[in-house]
Amino acid sequence: MEAKFIAYNKQSYSETETIDRSIEHLAYMDRRRTVREFSSRPIPIEVLENIIMSASTAPSGAHKQPWTFCIITNNDYKTKIKEAAEKEEFESYNGRMPEEWLEDLSYLGTDWHKPFLETAPALIIVFKKSYDIIDNKKRNNYYVTESVGLACGFLLEAIHYCGLVALTHTPSPMNFLTKLLNRPENEKPFLLIPVGYPADNTIVPDLQRKNKNDIINYY
Question: What's this model's pTM, rounded to 2 decimal places?
Answer without folding.
Answer: 0.94
